[in-house]
Amino acid sequence: MARANVIPDGNKEIAEEIPLIVEIVARAARWVNPQTFRELPVWCPWSARGRPLYEKTWRTRSTNTRGDTGVTSEKSEANVEAGKALVAALGVASPKPANWTVCHIWGYDDEAFGFRSHIVRNPRYYSCVGNMVWLPTPLKGFTDALPEIKRMLRTCAFHLYGWPARTKP
Known about the structure:
The chain is α+β, with helices and mostly antiparallel strands.
């Protein structure tokens, strides 16, 4: 009878490499200038993840009709406005370079991703440029899954912006 291949927890598998991963994330991260944060910390106070999207007149909900089923559903904000806010605050030239991703610093702390984050659903934090960092897309998963990376990014945000001031959002 064949034995099952026992694979360890993925975070444990790379535990010895975490210092190197922290260094790579720290080196690659793009942060908003602290003066920009002080002048305009929240760029899209009308928006947050999961909020309804509206047509340009703000009278009609935006919808999407699936081509394969014909089912129409209302659209909700995913992470578009926060991304636009961060890229604008960074002063990134157009066209935007490929393979960069907006990462919320205070977002998910649920290892199983079993619940929705209340932080990015709050307009005070969703487009707050002190709550975001721009990273090469392949590094994004580390910001969600490794507590060491979250802690490092949160420490950087605190030292750059004094944010959050005393307690987490």
